Task: structure prediction
Amino acid sequence: MRKGLIATGVLLWLVSTLYSAADTTEKLLGDESDGSRAIPNHLIELLIADPIDENKVVKITPDDKPLLPFSTRQTCGACHNYKTICSGWHFNAPDPNIPPGRPAQPWILVDTATATQIPLSHRPWPGTSRPEQLGLTPRKFLELFGRHTPGGGVGEQESTNSDEITREFISGKLEANCLSCHDADPAHNQSEYAIQAARENFRWAAAATCGFASVSGAAKYMPDDYDPFMPMPLEHPKLVPPTISYRANTFDEKKRVFFNIVREVPAERCYFCHSNMYLVKKETEKWQTDVDVHLTAGLTCVDCHRNGLDHNITRGYQEEGIVSNNPLVATSSCQGCHLPEKSSSTPVAGRLGAPVPKHPGIPPVHFDKLSCTACHSGPWPAQKTTLVKTSRAHRLGTLNVNKSPYAMPHIVSPVFAKQPNGKIAPHKLIWPAFWGVLKDQNVTPIDIEVVRQTAGEIFAKEKLTVSGGWLSLGAEHITEALKKLSSEKSVNGKSVYIAGGRLYFLDETGKLCQQDNHPAAKPYLWPIAHDVRPAAQALGVRRCEDCHSPEAPFFFGKVWVDSPVQGKGGVFRKMRDMYEIGGPVYVRVNWFFKLLIIGVMTLLILHILGDLYRRVMLWLANRAK
Amino acid sequence: MRQTSGTKAEEREFFQRFGLQFRVQHILLFLSTITLIITGVPLWCLGRPEYGWSQAVVSAFGSIDAIRYIHRAGAAVLILVSIYHLYYTMFTKEGRREFIELLPRQKDVIDVTINSLYFLGLLKYRPGFGRYTYYEKFDYWAVYWGCVIMIGTGLVLWFPGVAARYVPWFTYELAAEVHADEAILAALALFIWHFYNVHFNPSRFPGTLLWWHGKISREEMMHDHVLEYYKKALAQTKSKGQKAEPQNGTTV
Result:
């Protein structure tokens, strides 16, 4: 009896172990590599979810009426686990369970008419606001910023607003666009994605980027009762419904379409969202600048920024292992590739030909206090910071971009500041400027629409600059706007304006006051990683004086303070203010020694004076005798 | 012990105040300290744009590396002399005697009070001092404290990696701040206070070579260390009664 029980127990344990060990997730064709390094051919059917039953998939053929855009969720998802892919870093920003990691480039909401530039993020990075705080629903967010997203994430968030649900039926969702990165077709046009996002043609956006499809019309202007799956003629003759056409010969005899898909994403695809233009000179052209030293050496972005099916891409900073389960994070940072790991059983340094740096003559404290990027990344620091344009902030690569160097938002760089890990690194910086509500020393931004409607007419009197730069705000504008906003019902608290590192508010008498160094007015900074300069152009290559001299920008450079407020913009702060040592212990020690020096020296000098005084008195007395 | 010379000009009586070991330690201490101040101030000022001249000093030394090496060489001498001083005070008779003489006593507090009243003209006479006045004891203990702080923080700055492993609470920035602050205090105390007391006060101006030969005149002895003078006179009287008079040139 006892033996029987033991045998049953062992059997049950074995079964449960084997069951739990078995991979219960169904592996699709493209989810697991067979080991071949060749590029798989993607001659595949175009698929879309059945509009009546979402669980059913419908094949698209050239004779369909109406002709519909293919869905990446269905077309790519037939062989690749779409849900797993969408858990990756490029898609998971709205997921509150994802650790935010090191602060990175935010989205920047710019509204020149209300003198606003404010960093936004779905991730809880300190110094950013959440889009909904500014009144940006997922739909509005996509209209503004969908252009430089790869879809998925916010693009597929369910709306809770009934009006938006209706509109969503017309425009569709902005699905993860696999082609944004993996389409190697030279005819791929990512700027089409921006056009379609602005027209709310979310369902058509991915297909529109393909070389074999073109999209016209705008879902944005369709009436609420418009049905894209059974389109009826529109009453207004000038309205053009969203329509797709596929180039002739796109489909083969089996109604399949060839996609030029590559596993390893070309750097040019990354550049669409990750380009930087440092306005070192007034006219900066691409031919005047060099690319990252790694690209020059023949690497591509994805050689270091790698991921598996889950698209949990390595971001490449030193502490990433704390928040990422990507096994390559440890060996994908600067140190991971370039520095030998003593405890490793196999050599991991020097991957991809990475040279091991010798850093001759550089005191080791530099490696404790500086990130690698401090000396090696970004533009060579100048006496004053420069403006930089980025793809995501300035819509680079899309149609009708404002090419003025002063186009908003104003991002300042390189700014040497401390990272959360305590190391100094070069950063990009933005001075937030927005209208907000002050409550318990916290400032919450006011819905941008509320600001426009309440105080818009005050600013309308002022002329906007041709370059798209700041509106010029005087004290009277701010005072009037704050008074109007305070009387607005939806503004629950004391209204304030933040710009150029200052907080503006009205006192009890209605007089405009300002407070420096309010936490909400602090600039938002994010580290520069690229372009990496070669060793021969790293800080310190011309000896210590590159940083340790009275003119060295590293310590004494001037950081531009950007503000629309008259007389406050165009001033500078010292670079070292950005990483001045702080902390209560340090401050107390500093004060203790100051007082000690003053106290001790005062007593000693009094002693000397007393001695001298007495000697003089004695001398005078002797002389009198 | 006292020495008396025959000629009229040299009829001053001298006492051997400091022995060779003491003087060598003092010479090494002030040479290293002055080197550290000369090289340390420009290094400290490099981080401050308002002191542009520091770049010129660095250039005069050749480079930051050169000035840093000299600073560290000075630091090494200071560390060695500090270690030797510990040995001297613990394991030599002379060292132990000097150390005991330098310990603060209740009399020092009384001396400070009396001397302050004397400075203010409220008392007619200065207090009588023993082998070490209270301000000499202050000098000694200020250097003692200063060496502990400067060597401790200096080692953290010199070997930040090791320091981070063993004293992580003592950050590099904190060490740099304490090192600089204590150095400022030490330099000010040295050049203003100590130099006044030993070189620049009216009775010694333009300076003394006591640090070199270790001898002090009878007048100085009577003025600054009268109690020691009488103590030694008493000891001599006693020894005269018991033995023959001590030979010139022997240590008192």
